[in-house]
Design goal:
- By secondary structure, the chain is mostly helical.
- It contains eleven helices and no strands.
- Helix 4 packs across helix 6, helix 5 runs parallel beside helix 8 and helix 5 runs antiparallel to helix 11.
- The radius of gyration is 24 Å and the shape is flat.
Length: 236
């Protein structure tokens, strides 16, 4: 039996490949399948094109990763600087956290490609500028930025992958409640410190925990600034 002939109108000529289309397709693949799925062959399939045709626009997967990072880093929102270093560092941390949580694999991409291209330089320059203008010596400014980046990326990784990888807020809350209930049954004689804090280990929201850790980090930055400059550890 022969197949029926389609009477649907044709869609017209295929849109030509461009670097912009390839990067957009790569971002779609990253969102759907993560870093492991982001290959030239997979991006070509997303574009309904041959893999070799992509190489006329992008030299390699490495270059494609840099282009994707360029695009995503440029989309990170940045709050207006206030001139008070503590508020500005906190705002930068929150801005980057929001961007990382929108794309679970952006943390991995940032850390894997850091130093490979210019994508993250505007954010890096912004962060270092906040610390330097506050009076942090260059060494402390660089290391404070490392500490801040490690905290933000680590907390985002935990938030994305923790509790069995649950993504839905309702599911995460349910799993957290189950974990807290399980800890409450642990014998206090064997685990006295877990028993003493069992009610707090999963209390509050992810934002609560992030803000607490950020405040502790800022307090530490302020203490180091006070020691190095002889000024108080305030926010200006």
């Amino acid at each position: 039996m022969s197949s029926p002939i389609s009477t649907a109108p044709t869609t017209g000529p295929r849109e030509p490949l461009s670097r912009e289309r390839i990067v957009a397709a790569a971002i779609a693949v990253l969102d759907a399948e993560g870093m492991a799925g982001l290959t030239m062959r997979r991006v070509a399939r997303e574009l309904d094109a041959g893999a070799m045709s992509l190489y006329r626009h992008v030299a390699s997967r490495e270059e494609l990763l840099d282009l994707v990072l360029d695009e995503l880093a440029a989309a990170v929102p940045v709050s207006t600087l206030t001139g008070a270093w503590r508020e500005d560092v906190a705002a930068l941390a929150r801005d980057v956290r929001a961007a990382l949580l929108r794309r679970r694999d952006l943390t991995l991409l940032l850390t894997a490609r850091l130093g490979q291209g210019p994508a993250a330089l505007p954010l890096l320059d912004r962060a270092l500028g906040i610390f330097l203008r506050a009076g942090f010596p260059p060494r402390d400014a660089a290391r404070s930025n490392h500490a801040l980046g490690g905290y933000v990326s680590g907390s985002c990784t935990w938030e994305a992958a923790g509790l069995g990888g649950a993504v839905d807020p309702g599911e995460r809350a349910e799993r957290a409640a189950g974990a807290a209930a399980g800890l409450a049954t642990m014998p206090a004689a064997a685990y006295p410190h877990v028993a003493a804090t069992a009610g707090e280990l999963f209390a509050g929201t992810a934002e609560d925990r992030f803000e607490y850790g950020l405040a502790v980090l800022l307090d530490g930055f302020g203490a180091r600034l006070a020691r190095s400059t002889g000024r108080g550890a305030g926010g200006s």
